[in-house]
Amino acid sequence: MEYSHSDAELIRQPIGYWSWAAYKAVVSRIRAALAEIGTTQPQWWVLAQVARAETVKTRAEVSRLLRNYLDTGPEAMEAEIDATIAQGWITEDAGGRLGITAAGRAFYDKAAALQDELWAERHAGISDEEYLTTMKVLQRFIHNTGGRAWHH
């Protein structure tokens, strides 16, 4: 791969720009690929939370966990949960407990396979060691600037 600058110049490049550009490229790719199979990234998050849950989760639990992902917000997350229910992928009982349907399980499997392909695409040519270093460096930037971030 050809890089944008020499090593000496890259050291002086702004992390804010490059982390934003990486975010934009990765999220845009994920969202476009999910749109091709008929879903949104937040709907995928909902479906994955319900499909992978060891114990049944409530709407409130799923919404609380996901509402801060990429600044989605509580109102948008509630709408995405509603949309996932409307698709017939999950159900909600009177107690707010969410369950996956047979159609939801089939769609989850399809979307999970796509996510695996996207992961491999993003990580092509990047060793686990490089990825781990990148994650630690990004978290250090967050810490050093007084930011807060957490992902399940």
Question: Which helices and strands, and how do they pair?
Answer:
Layout: H1 7-10, H2 15-36, H3 41-52, E1 57-58, H4 59-66, H5 74-86, E2 90-92, E3 97-100, H6 102-123, H7 128-144
Antiparallel strand pairs: 1-3, 2-3
Explained architecture:
This protein has 152 residues and is mainly alpha-helical. 64% of the residues lie in helices and 6% in strands. The protein has seven helices and three strands, in the order αααβααββαα. It has helices at 7-10, 15-36, 41-52, 59-66, 74-86, 102-123, 128-144, and strands spanning 57-58, 90-92, 97-100. α2 runs antiparallel to α6 (102-123), α3 crosses α6 (102-123) and α4 (59-66) crosses α5 (74-86).
**Low-confidence region ranges:** none
Biggest sheet details? 3 strands, antiparallel
Strand content: 5-15%
Order of neighbouring strands in the sheet with most strands? 1-3-2
Protein name: DNA-binding MarR family transcriptional regulator
InterPro entries: WH-like_DNA-bd_sf, WH_DNA-bd_sf
Organism: Streptomyces demainii
Keywords: DNA-binding
